[in-house]
Amino acid sequence: MNKKELRQKYKRLRQQLSQKEIEDKSLAIANQLLKMDIWNKTYYHIFLPIEEQKEVNTEYILQILAGKDKEVVVSKSDFKTTSMTHFLLTDNTKIKKNEYNIPEPINGLKVPPEMIDVVFVPLLAYDKQGNRVGYGKGFYDKFILECRKDIVKIGLSFFEYEDKIDNIFKNDVKLDFIVTQKNIY
Known about the structure:
By secondary structure, the chain is an alpha/beta fold. It contains four helices and ten strands. 24% of the residues lie in helices and 21% in strands. It has a single domain, classed as NagB/RpiA/CoA transferase-like (Rossmann fold, 3-Layer(aba) Sandwich). The longest helix is centred in the first third of the chain and has 15 residues, at 19-33. The chain has helices at 3-15, 19-33, 59-67, 139-146, and strands at 43-45, 71-78, 83-88, 95-97, 103-105, 118-121, 125-126, 132-133, 152-156, 177-179. The model has no long low-confidence stretch (mean pLDDT 95). The two termini are 20 Å apart. α3 links the parallel β1 (43-45) and β2. The strands form three sheets. Strands 3-2-1-6-9-10 form a six-stranded mixed β-sheet, with helices on both faces. It holds the Pfam family 5-FTHF_cyc-lig. GO terms for molecular function: 5-formyltetrahydrofolate cyclo-ligase activity. Its EC number is 6.3.3.2.
């Protein structure tokens, strides 16, 4: 399937999930992450979920990061340049939804991309090779290219993989891992 078809399919599948299913699956994904050898790092970039899109609830991962005393980084999107600015998430960080319902920091300490060690990546679909389908604007592909080469890229998904995504582009960044409620790929 191509990216457009996969976007439609997985948006539809997500919309069928109940709030309880989202919470249960999100908690299971967080528990899977605890099995991974990624917790010796310092800076972790995480997305704050768009509830209307029924994304993985990253609150459970935030709790793990807080419990392990890690530095958490969240982003603000610029839709004119399809770029993101990254901020340290602290008790003083104010979060507000933008016009696309993306929760974003409105203030805070900026963090350069090269400081980030691990990035949790939102996605709609993915394949066995680590290719992902997002919403199609390329925000995360651009962002990851600004990071160090050794950054750990982890996609989070409620669903299992597709065999192959047909229209992969050279600027599409592959993920190192994809974590679902039952598997770590």
